[in-house]
Amino acid sequence: MTITTAKTRWLVAAIFVLSAPTQSAPPHAGWPAYGATAGGTHFSRASQITPENVAQLEQVWEHRSGDVREAVRDPENFVMQSSLQVTPILVEDTLYYCSPFNNVFALDARTGEQRWRFEADVDIDSEQVFTNCRGVSSWQSGKTGYCEHRIVVGTLDARLIALDAGTGERCTDFGNNGEVDTSEGQAEHHPREFGITSPPAILGDKIITGSYVLDNLRTDAPGGVVHAYDARTGERAWAWNPVPPGMPQRREDGTWVTGTTNVWSILSVDEERNLVFLPTGNTQPDYYGGHRDGLDYYSSSVIALNGDTGEVVWHYQLVHHDVWDYDAPAQPTLVDLTIDGESVPAVIQVSKMGMTFALHRETGEPLWPVEERPVPQQGVPGETLAATQPFPTHIPYTLTPPFTADDAWGMMIWDESACRDKISAMRNEGAYTPPSLEGSVNFPSNAGGNNWGSPAIHPDSGVMVVYTNRVPGSTRLIPREQCDEVVQQQAGTPYCVETSMVTSPLGVPCSEPPWGTLDGIDIVAGKRIWSVPLGTTRNMAPFPFWFLKGLPGLAAPMMTASGLVFSGISNDHNLRAFSLATGEELWKGALPTAANALPMTYQLEEGGRQYVVIAAGGHWSGGSPPGDHLIAFALPESGSAQ
After folding, report:
1. Is 423 helix (H, G, I), strand (E, B) or coil?
2. Which of 216, 190, 208 is nearest to 269 (CA)?
3. Per-residue confidence at 330, pLDDT binned at 50, 70, 90?
4. H/E segment holding residue 18
5. pLDDT: is 596 or 9 the higher one?
6. What is the pLDDT of the chain when averaged over all its residues?
7. What is the spatial distance between Cα 450 and Cα 443, in angstroms, rounded to a whole number?
8. Which residue pairs from 638-642 have beta carbons closer than 8 angstroms and sit at least 24 positions apart in sequence?
9. Catalytic residue numbers?
10. How does pLDDT run across 191-228, given as a tens digit for each residue?
């Protein structure tokens, strides 16, 4: 829709409001926020699809945005492919989602028919390292009329844009012509260093967002400021830069202190307690911290902020002085647990270490003991490592270091031997082996363990399902004088860095499959219920003659009240359904490329058709081609009662 003047825009809006039908009833089982709830449970009460009939699922519609970018592998002109990692939200009978280019779409939830499209005008050719948008958010005033319901999207160039949910037109009373610039006040930086890929949180009349800051470039990278804006006007309500207590958040020139930890993943909110929960990254740059001098006080933590002021209520650090990129990657999951007969408001935080921390939502205190245990201490000159790291004692880990040369695996004898030699040549002292000049084995790798896909948690039973990546990585620091050709410069430190997965000459992980699993855990009982491989090598090279189960990658599970778990994975071209009770695979739906986005589901009416929607868009890791497929599955209409 092209509107050339403000007068014309408001005229069109008025006609739309006058002619629009009355608002439909809320859906019977909706999906109003990225993670289903404001606390990210990934759980739906939709129950038409059951373990007994899930095998009947069929594709019922597909929407394609056209927003796809192919990779260019030329080292002189490298371009990363696009990756559709979005999870739509459902408000009334409309789905809203964003493409990797930050364009926004509204779809009929029954048919997938496009109702409107908004062009965000992000310059995707301006050396952007990647293109990604994981979701949009919805704010409603409770009134009817133009821009009383707003769809909010964050962009790769660090803007927040507010759109009228009915027309897709800008809400011109929000900021400057419908947008605010979240990079305001940042020190000078390249546009590609700083932006937004996760959906903002909505708390009352505030829109709250963090940002991504590109890893390992320099010590004075943009500050990881969290902003809250008035949903109506776009005025900044508060901002918080994660500096240590007592340190000014801004420099003498008025710009934000640089190099602070950022919040790139998904935020959660507790409306009743007026709290915002942040999962923080680790302080710049990731693999050396000799310069930080306390600047990583809030690094790799779960933090609760007061929703009115942005003041810290409590924080809990998952990794001390993080030099492994073991940040808090996943949305903090808010769920009430029944412990010793008492309902306890909890925050569940999974980590790249494959550990699960359960904290009291109001105080941040662990619900079960966490032990501080000694960890390796032989770092590089100039580094000061933490003497201990926290280890939860109740909830089982989804993987357990160490990974040694004796654990090396290969597809053939010579392949396994090469892996063993590679591992033996590196430093390897188990969990938290520090980065070194000769190279260190890190198990898990910097991809986890668990990553941004987060867990799904059943709010009644407390059963959690989470994807676990089981591939070892390596980290090698390189003296500054040898850094000319290294990509990850870590400028401002004595070392640049090279990181990689530990793989054989065939490019195969040196760990024994499965390389990725779905894990079912009873949180309160502290027991693993099941663990099953996720994905197969059918769509991957170099595996034309081998068929292995359990892929490395990224995945995000979703569960339903009927006892189902749905998940895709970034290197497998299928969406799968599993039994929540046993982990048994019950259904597999073929996709045109991999789906590493979080699936979502909904029923518009009680007894009506239940839809399962997944974005199949590939991933830039190289295991799956880019795509722009948003696909819905449902039971055959004639078989809805079977």
Report:
1. helix
2. 208
3. very high
4. helix 6-19
5. 596
6. 92
7. 12
8. 639/53, 639/56, 640/48, 640/609, 642/52, 642/53, 642/56
9. 325
10. 788 999 999 999 999 999 999 998 898 999 999 999 99
DSSP string, 514-529: PSEEEEEEETTTTEEE
Torsion of CA 430, 436, 441, 443, to 10 degrees: 60
Q: Which of 447, 439, 450 is nearest to 472 (CA)?
A: 447
Tokens of 334: 């808010």
Burial of 441 (0-12, 13-18, 19+ CB in 10 A): buried
CA atoms within 13 A on the CB side of 192: 13
Task: Return all residues near 327 (Cβ < 8 A) that are at least 6 apart.
Answer: 261, 279, 280, 281, 282, 299, 300, 319, 352
In angstroms, the CA 470 to CA 157 distance is 33
CB 214 within 8 A of CB 325: no
Select from 554, 553, 565, 568 the least CA-distant residue to 614: 568
Write down the residue that tokens 């040196």 correspond to. Answer: 510
Tell me which of 3-12, 516-525, 553-562, 595-604 is least confident: 3-12
DSSP lists the bridge partners of residue 619 as 624
Per DSSP, the three-state class of 281 is coil
Q: Are 232 and 265 in contact (CB under 8 A)?
A: no
Determine the residue type at 164. Answer: D
Three-state SS sequence of 208-268: EECCEECCCCECCCCCCCEEEEECCCCCEEEEECCCCCCCCCECCCCCECCCCCCCCCCCE
Taking the C-alpha atoms of residue 276 and residue 347, their distance in angstroms, rounded to an integer, is: 11
Q: Cβ-count burial of 546 within 10 angstroms (0-12 exposed, 13-18 middle, 19+ buried)?
A: exposed
* DSSP state for residue 512 in the 8-state scheme: P
Q: What strand order describes the sheet that includes 440-442?
A: 440-442, 473-479, 495-501
Q: Which SS3 state, helix, strand or coil, does residue 407 take?
A: helix
What's the burial of 236, exposed, middle or buried (CB within 10 Å: 0-12/13-18/19+)?
middle
DSSP states of 71-107: -B--GGG-BPPP------EEETTEEEEE-TT--EEEE
Cβ atoms within 10 Å, residue 615: 31
| Residue 300 DSSP symbol | T
DSSP class of 538: G
**Is the predicted pLDDT of residue 289 greater than 50, yes or no?**
yes
The strand ranges marked E within 378-526 are 388-392, 440-442, 456-457, 463-469, 473-479, 495-501, 516-522
* DSSP sequence for 549-585: B---S----EEETTSEEEEEETTEEEEEEEETTT--E
Amino acid, res. 70:
E
Residue 368: strand, helix, or coil: coil
**pTM across the whole model:** 0.94
Confirm if 208 and 310 have CB atoms less than 8 A apart.
no
The pairing of strands 388-392 and 370-374 is antiparallel
Residue type at position 641: A
**CA–CA separation, 64 vs 112, rounded Å?**
10
Beta bridge partners of 389: 373
What's the rounded mean pLDDT across residues 220-243? 97
Q: Residue 131: what are its φ and ψ, rounded to 5°?
A: -120, 130
Of 141, 122, 267, the C-alpha closest to 199 is: 267
